[in-house]
């Protein structure tokens, strides 16, 4: 039977669309700015679970448009999760490392205190709370630093800038796990399937690529794998001011995800190689 995916052209949504048994609904079919209409539509779609891969992900823009971001990231997931609960469908909500303020150097546990440092993180945390409060089987899967061959992400920015310049300054004191969207899609599908028979596994889980690195180290590996000659100079966060504050420590402890769902942290360097191969194949067509 079909799993309903909210989102169609986003990084994770596209990877979900490539898996068997997924029915992906982009905003032209389900515009989450009207959550009640989407919930009504959900009631007419036969499916076994719902995966929410739709969100407002423009971190800096959320600072000035928090109400819009809140509608998509908090209100809509809450309404959809309540509709799913009424229909007896498990609901998988993807969330973010940006719910943590990033203090310390230890990986965050799923039940560690949250304190979002920016508007995007606040809206995603409100979404977590709404989904958890909806009353149905659910998983809140926090991931980080998502990349894929499509859409807006750090590796694609680096590929563009690295070909234009011979040197880039990149922050080296924010540490986290880059995560390939294809790995997140497979994890969401596995979790949705397990929740159908084991609703007692509901809860908050972490899933991020290994090993943890800084953005600067991530950039170096992107240039190495893509064979781009661009020097990376380490800089502190203070030397790269942005509208939204980003957490310094984005490390996520993923051991509960391994224990409950049997999912290992994915190797992001392998994901990066897959992404680069996909880009090369698409460019050669
Ligand atoms: N990007 C990242 O680095 C990280 C992302 N996450 C989380 O992972 C999830 C997936 O992110 P990612 O794949 O990067 O997102 P993208 O920004 O690539 O895609 C956003 C998705 O949201 C959908 N969407 C946007 N507005 C609406 C709307 N009004 N109605 C319906 N759908 C809408 C888009 O729909 P359409 O298909 O129609 O374009 C698209 O599928 C999100 O929950 C995000 O918060 C967590 C950690 C890191
Ligand atoms: C382009 C560029 C960025 N940077 C820094 C800024 C920032 O600290 C870091 C990453 O920048 P980005 O804007 O690409 O990343 P950002 O949009 O903050 O990525 C986040 O997106 C949301 C959706 C999430 O949920 C997070 O997990 C995370 O992936 O790189 C440099 O230091 N030098 C540069 O030349």
From TrEMBL:
Keyword NADP (UniProt): yes
Keyword Nuclease attributed: no
GO biological process, one term: dTDP-rhamnose biosynthetic process
Keyword entries, A-Z: NADP, Oxidoreductase
The enzyme's E.C. designation: 1.1.1.133
Catalytic activity as recorded in UniProt: dTDP-beta-L-rhamnose + NADP(+) = dTDP-4-dehydro-beta-L-rhamnose + NADPH + H(+)
A Pfam entry, by short name: RmlD_sub_bind
Cofactor binding, note field: Binds 1 Mg(2+) ion per monomer.
Cofactors: Mg(2+)
CDD domains for this protein: dTDP_HR_like_SDR_e
Pathway listed: Carbohydrate biosynthesis; dTDP-L-rhamnose biosynthesis
GO molecular function terms listed in the Swiss-Prot or TrEMBL record: dTDP-4-dehydrorhamnose reductase activity
Domain named RmlD-like substrate binding: residues: 1-279
Domain of life: Bacteria
Record family assignment: Belongs to the dTDP-4-dehydrorhamnose reductase family.
Entry function: Catalyzes the reduction of dTDP-6-deoxy-L-lyxo-4-hexulose to yield dTDP-L-rhamnose.
Protein name stated in the entry: dTDP-4-dehydrorhamnose reductase
